[in-house]
């Protein structure tokens, strides 16, 4: 595995590969790699000739009171894991390389960034869209792999790719969970053992909601209430939001129909966890 720190070198290597007719797959991450990230990398490797992974803790997507400085950066372990997963190129740029001074250009996806996490993390999706837009120009992949774990991010980035005509196919991969059902997250390391146990309640409450809808529940308010009640009863978490929305557009639902995304964000101390589940109705 080659570790590349410069944008120019990255662009040159990938241009060479493309000239040789290689299909390039790309997995952007912020590192602190776990099985969730690795599942994306393995799929990328199966489906492409060249697998590029980026590790970049993107300052532009963190709010001023968020955990940018504290975000875990286990560089050595990450390199080992990426190597083992069969990654060909690890792109690992510095902040200066990605945002040379002065930096003036941002990408903003409208509307679908205003609700769910967007409401609680102003500017977050502007930072995400900007960095992924830049990374797509640097890596020039044929296929971009994203996780369903960050459901809103996946919808927003698909919209960006469509609106700005990035020549890339977006593939969204299933959420990888721990044995207790909790979604794997780089932020789980911040949790106390007690909070880590409670984190599994998020998934259980989502599963229960899905089962309710599948057994005929047609009141979304009741579904949301059920989830909120269970989380408040069984955990010490503070709920940012629980919402049922259209899975493709993230718009509010007027009735229980089509592909529904039930998404939530819950804070344990200063650690914010997100999770979601998809329900297909008819
Ligand atoms: P991050 O490093 O948190 O920015 O995540 C990088 C990519 O990995 C994003 O596309 C995430 O959605 C995806 N990802 C993170 N956690 C998981 C998980 N538990 N299962 C599947 N994909 C994940």
Main traits of this protein?
3-stranded antiparallel beta sheet; 282 residues; 39% helix; 6-stranded parallel beta sheet; alpha/beta; Pantoate--beta-alanine Ligase, Chain: A,domain 2; binds adenosine monophosphate; Rossmann fold
Structure description:
This protein has helices at residues 7-19, 35-47, 75-84, 95-98, 117-120, 124-139, 151-163, 193-214, 220-234; strands spanning 2-4, 24-29, 50-55, 89-91, 143-147, 169-173, 238-246, 258-268, 271-281. With 282 residues, the chain is α/β, with parallel strands linked by helices. It folds into two domains: 2-173, HUPs (Rossmann fold, 3-Layer(aba) Sandwich); 186-277, Pantoate-beta-alanine ligase, C-terminal domain (Pantoate--beta-alanine Ligase, Chain: A,domain 2, 2-Layer Sandwich), CATH 3.30.1300. Strands 1-4-3-2-5-6 form a six-stranded parallel sheet, sandwiched between helices. The protein has a three-stranded antiparallel sheet with strand order 7-8-9, covered by helices on one side. Helix 8 runs antiparallel to helix 9. The structure holds adenosine monophosphate (AMP). Residues 29-30, 36-37, 39-40, 146-147, 149-150, 173, 175-176, 183-186 line the site of adenosine monophosphate. Adenosine monophosphate is lined by residues 29-30, 36-37, 39-40, 146-147, 149-150, 173, 175-176, 183-186.
């Amino acid at each position: 595995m080659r570790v590349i720190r410069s944008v120019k070198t990255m662009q040159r290597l990938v241009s060479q590969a493309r000239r040789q007719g290689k299909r390039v797959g790309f997995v952007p991450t912020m590192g602190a790699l776990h099985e969730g990230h690795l599942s994306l990398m393995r799929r990328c490797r199966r489906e492409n000739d060249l697998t590029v992974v980026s590790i970049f803790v993107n300052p532009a997507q963190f709010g001023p009171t968020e955990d940018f400085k504290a975000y875990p950066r286990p560089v050595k372990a990450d390199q080992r894991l990426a190597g083992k997963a069969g990654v060909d190129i690890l792109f690992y740029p510095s902040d200066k390389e990605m945002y040379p001074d002065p930096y003036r250009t941002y990408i903003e996806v409208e509307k679908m960034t205003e609700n769910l996490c967007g409401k609680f993390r102003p500017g977050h999706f502007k930072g995400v869209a900007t960095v992924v837009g830049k990374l797509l120009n640097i890596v020039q992949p044929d296929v971009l792999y994203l996780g369903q774990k960050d459901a809103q991010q996946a919808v927003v980035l698909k919209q960006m790719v469509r609106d700005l005509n990035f020549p890339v196919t977006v593939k969204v991969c299933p959420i990888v969970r721990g044995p207790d059902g909790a979604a794997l997250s780089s932020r789980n390391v911040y949790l106390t053992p007690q909070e880590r146990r409670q984190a599994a309640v998020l998934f259980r409450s989502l599963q229960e909601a899905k089962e309710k809808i599948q057994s005929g529940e047609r009141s979304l308010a009741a579904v949301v209430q059920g989830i909120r009640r269970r989380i408040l009863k069984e955990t010490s978490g503070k709920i940012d939001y629980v919402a049922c929305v259209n899975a493709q557009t993230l718009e509010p639902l007027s009735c229980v129909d089509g592909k529904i995304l039930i998404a939530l964000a819950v804070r344990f101390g200063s650690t914010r966890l997100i999770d979601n589940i998809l329900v297909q109705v008819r």
